[in-house]
Amino acid sequence: MKNILRKILPRRLISAARILLIMHREHGHVNRRDGFPVNGRGEYQPWLTYPLIEYLKGFDFSQKRIFEFGAGSSTLFWASRAKHVESVELDRRWFDSLVKIVPDNVVLNHQSDGISYAQKIIEADGQFDVIVVDGAERYRSAEAALKKLIPGGMIILDNAEWYPNTAELLRGAGLIEVRFSGFSPVNAFTSTSSVFLHRDFSFPLVTDARQPPVGGVSIKGGTLDDGPRSGK
Asked: Comparing C-alpha atoms, which of 126, 114, 44 is closest to residue 77?
């Protein structure tokens, strides 16, 4: 049946249908649970671009400490992967809906004052391996984040294209920016989520880090030219 459809339908139509299936069935683009975005398997996913989500899924965060400026589905995403998650949220209603469902490895804070919100990380014990700047007061939050980032860690700035001054602040601190542009859950427009890596960054990978991304194609045994060969 598939071969018949391929002969009848234009290739561009088949490609468009395949993209829709990946977005809605596999990414779960508009799916929600408890009001938060989930993928096609019903797993909570952060409101970051899909390319960055794929990148993050390749690392082992089981011994890592995470701090978030802006709580939400990302809090639940990190909670399922990291040792400790601490988040601060400005919106009281958003905080109230989330505090009921976070697991025990999450410390959730509400702070309605913007200045105090940005300084909440300074009050936290110790440093953090990953700091996510994805809420209110992003420039002030990034300033505070630089003081609490562990050597070898990463800072994530969502919607980096909207916050060029914040991005330049992090670059100016000597961090390496890697941009991940594309669609993100629910949204009908593309954006950029940037990762700022400390120059000693070296997080361990998960065992299946080299698996195809969502919607990708698997080649059993790998390609023929992936490895050394004898002869000419």
From this structure: 44
